Amino acid sequence: MAGAKRGCLAVLAVVVLLVALAGVGAFALWQRLGSFASTPVTPDQASITIAPGDSFSTVLGKLRAAGIDEGRDVQWQLLARQLDAAGKLKVGEYALEPAPTPRELLRNMRQGKVLQYRVTIVEGWNIRQLRAALNRAQPLLHKTAELSDTELMAALGFPEQHPEGRFLPETYIYQRGDSDLDVLKRAHAAMEKELAAAWASRADDLPLTSPYELLILASIIEKETGLASERPQIAGVFMRRLKMGMRLQTDPTVIYGIGSAYDGNIRRSHLTTDTPYNTYTRAGLTPTPIAMPGRDALHAAAQPAPGNALYFVAVGDGSGAHEFSATLSDHNAAVARYLQRLRQSRSQAVQQ
Question: Which of 137, 261, 276, 312 is the most buried (most CB within 10 A)?
Answer without folding.
Answer: 312
